[in-house]
Amino acid sequence: MNTRTRRQRLNNPLTTWLGLLAAAVVASTSVLPAHAASDPKDSGSSSALHSLRAPVTDENFYFVMADRFSNGDTSNDDGGLGSDPMVSGFNPTKKGFYNGGDLAGLLDKIDYIQGLGTTSIWLTPSFKNKAVQPEDNSAGYHGYWITDFTQIDPHLGTNDELKALIDEAHSRGMKVYFDIITNHTADVIGYEEGARKTYVSKDAEPYKTAAGEAFDDRDFAASKDFPELDATTSFPYVPVLDKAEENLKVPAWLNDSTLYHNRGDTTFVGENSYYGDFFGLDDLFTENPKVVDGMEEIYKSWIGDFGVDGFRIDTMKHVNNEFWQEFGPEMLSYAKAQGKDEFFMFGEVFDTTKSFTSQFTTRNQMQAVLDFPFQDAARNFASKSQDTRSLETFFAGDDWYTDADSNVYQLPTFLGNHDMGRIGSFIAADNPGSADTEQVARDQLAHELMYFSRGNPVIYYGDEQGFTGPGGDQDARQTLFASQVPEYLDDDLLGTDATHAADNFNAGHPLYAKIGQLAALTKEHPALRDGAHQHRYASEGPGIYAFSRTGSEDQREYVVALNNSEQPQTAEVPTYIGKRSYTRIYGDAAEEAKTSADGKLTVTVPPLSAVVYQSSGRIPHSKAAPAVSLQEPAAAPADNGRIKVTADVGGTSFYEVTFEARTAGGGWAPIGTDDTAPYQVFHDVAALDAGTALEYRATVLDNGGHRATSQPRAAAVPAPVLTIQTPLEGSSVEGAVELSATADPEKSSHVVSFERSVAGGEWTAVGSDDSSPVYSVTDVAPRDLADGTEVRYRATMAGPGFNVVSEPRTVFVGEAPQPGSVTVAGSFNSQIGCPRDWDEACPEASMVLDPADNVWRLTVTLDPGQYEYKAALNGTWDVSYGADGVLGGSNIALDHPGGTVTFRYDNRTHIVSAVYASQQPQAVAVAGTLNALLGCDGDWDPACDQAQLTMDPDTLVWKLSATLPAGTYEFKAALDRDWKESYGAGGSATGGNISYTHDGGAVTFRYDDATHLLTAG
């Protein structure tokens, strides 16, 4: 670390995370949120602070899967389990099995890793795994099926070899990060009722204490009074262990089946995303303090005994908030006691919504999350050449992460990973038919954006060698050593004629060289790593996006301009300094440029590239602090648990604005400092009662040391917002109706009631639920109502300081009548032969109803571009449906790569969507008890040729017609001739078997990948 950065951090009053935590205890006594650190010595004077730079804002990560990097020791390939691949998991010819890489290979190739400018190695989980899970027909090479949390997987090496790798990295000034899991273990637990069962909600079957009393676990989360449980009576499914695996897991407490949720498989939405098993993986009961304590002890040992420098935390969004609020501070406290003041943790929150991902660093007290929103924005900019103004919008949302002890500068940024796929793959898919030179240029542009913008850049191993692949997961996990996997040998590599048949450790590869160059430049100019990131310019459409980076101490401005178009572009970029020379330090452009009197810097940027200019001196000192005033604080539009506080600052120089809050009678407490306009924070008030009175103020610190403080503005904590999740607006219902709702912010004390109105009549009670995070009841009244009857539902809730009612949902009893016509009306209509765009009655845009599944479809061919559309019914705009099936809702965006696209509209849900043939699976099989009758070698065979469906290119519906004898059959949809991805009843991933009683004769199976529904008839 450079001395300037270290000095800046040590002098900043908010740099010690643990110090803030201690201060928060004081603050919490006056009911301010725990992350607002108050100053008990002085409640009158305002704070004028520098924007926080936590210990980790200048790392260059190399994310590597040990099994797929380098095979340094062939003697451990089978993990000591013998030669049978279905026992050892080792098969170098299959992408779903161990391929042979190990820790010895990492140590042997550490020069190669460091040559990229890497400062931190991030390892995928390396603990001992269940070598093979037969149900998945694959192996634990990836590390996410852990059975022993105290031992390195024998396929990868030994604990001593890990220690040797860490020691060698430390001797080179590098760090080593572990990928850890707290959400689940390997699939060891079964159920008396059968394996991998469909999820059962808490409302359908609540948890019960060992004494048989029902309770809501959220009422006891993080409490030492968590009820005792019994395996035979406490869960919807009775957990059982195979005799041979009763003591398989280490530490021993993990073999207690009552420390798991035991509710069946998740579908990754709603309540079950917290409580369900991931494809059968045993989901830990993280609300139970025994699990919290156990996980803390496990990971403390890897810090204390091995010197691990930090953790990437898997599946963070699938674990309850209370776990993180305990786990994060405890890990940091322990690491600090071990002398690791720069210990750093970041979580995987697979979501692109900043208002949601930021909750884990604000509300849940974690340091950082992986910047999935950045990955999406970077792909759109560099690979798809979208309007550069979308980057302006993206970076403007960075203030969601700003609070008193963290901000966006800590987030690890990335371009692709082992789950979603590689940046090279995205570029190839987004630019079909483009030349290798263009694809390499776009790849380099994406890396330039990542290295020059805020955050800690992450290189996914192999990206530096131009790896691609057709998708994510196993298709994005190629070996850097010579591969024997047929699917990998077919991959194209960017920037080289090499293939996966040979080793790929080429330090001369253009992408390896580019990444090394970017790392060296940002090391030489540290403001490009952790200087203030200020938006400067965005063109209309593809073109130049520009921002500046400024260090708070040396006050030298760097202007970064990136061009995502395929032609040279020129722009006048605003800066902090007028009539000043700027020197080019990166890119192909004029060596010198001078700003105009009003501070505009004229830059010309070649196509698909970047340039960087450095000011010849520091920004002139302000002579006086600018005026500052607060806008009226208000509930944040995307997170009702936060209040948006915005400051208007006069002047155009470099400023830092500190926001403070207080409750009635309390002292002022800093809640965050922002160093880029627009100056704002999103203050987390979810812990406070609705109606609590608050005051805010802002203090601006200029670059001459002057400060000015705004007048206070009053606000009140908003009441929670109730939203009905089911049923969908305008849908048809038959029989019992499941009603569900969520509250924002969520609290375990909430009790939600539901009411109905029939045919416009009075509201009457249906029932109540106090089981968070999703509240639901079942209404049986529609069973007795005539078809076509209109029924409205609403949710209500009362509590301290609030009495709220949701927006109503209207449904109709019985099958909803189909409209006379459905038109997909949008900005592309003229392209398909309509007289004009947004033509609600155009015959060429009319969809066709498929009576087999009552879905309307239309397939058209479009040029590449960005479009918008809606569904218009009966040839008018009187009834239309937009995003999420909302009546009269917002336009739906379509980013189309060019070619055919199929639109589909379902009148039961009113959802209209666009699907592509390129998004379809490679194969779909009806796998079940009918396979032998179809001519397969046996039943439940996903790879059998006779069980494969064929896709109709006009509708993108998969079909198989067959003749079967009378009987009752069970089956699922198995994708890509494997059980890795399958869908059962209701279209649920790995869901229950679909049952079908057949009278004998012809039958047609149909599968729609948009809904994952497999039907027979």
From TrEMBL:
An example molecular function term from Gene Ontology annotations: hydrolase activity
Sequence ranges assigned to domain Glycosyl hydrolase family 13 catalytic in this UniProt record: 63-522
Cleaved signal peptide residues: 1-36
Keywords of this entry: Hydrolase, Signal
Family matches, as SMART domains: Aamy (SM00642)
Name this protein carries in UniProt: Alpha-amylase family glycosyl hydrolase
High-level lineage: Bacteria, Bacillati, Actinomycetota, Actinomycetes, Micrococcales
